[in-house]
Request: fold
Amino acid sequence: MNEPHVNLSNAGRPGDDTYKKVIEEISGHKVCPFCQEYLANYHKNPILKEGRNWLVTANMYPYDNAKHHFLFIHKSHIANTEDMPAESFAELQELIAWIVKEYKCPGGTLMMRCGDMALTGATVAHIHAHFIVADYENKDRKPILARVG
Reply:
């Protein structure tokens, strides 16, 4: 793959440059941080569940105001949904159901990052999905903001 594995333009977070520094480091290594052979080098949270096509973990850099922020990382290095095996979608649905039950989530937002990073807000060019749960027990909760495009 000659295309970049990460997008520095999407790595900025107001008031915190920690994530951007990590993405800069990864960019210098010229590897995909979500590919299985490199994941442990950059992602220190444990794998919560593993399917045939997906790994499930807590996001190391959760969005502000989220009670839970999970990542579903496809095991194969693909960037677009049209390159995913059909069974990947069914398995993703099963893993989301497991998260909802395991963490007693009354609701959440599913967002998949795929394709051109400049259009999706993604920092990693490897298909992945976010499942984000608001801090529903906090009556003064603030909105969760995510970059898209």
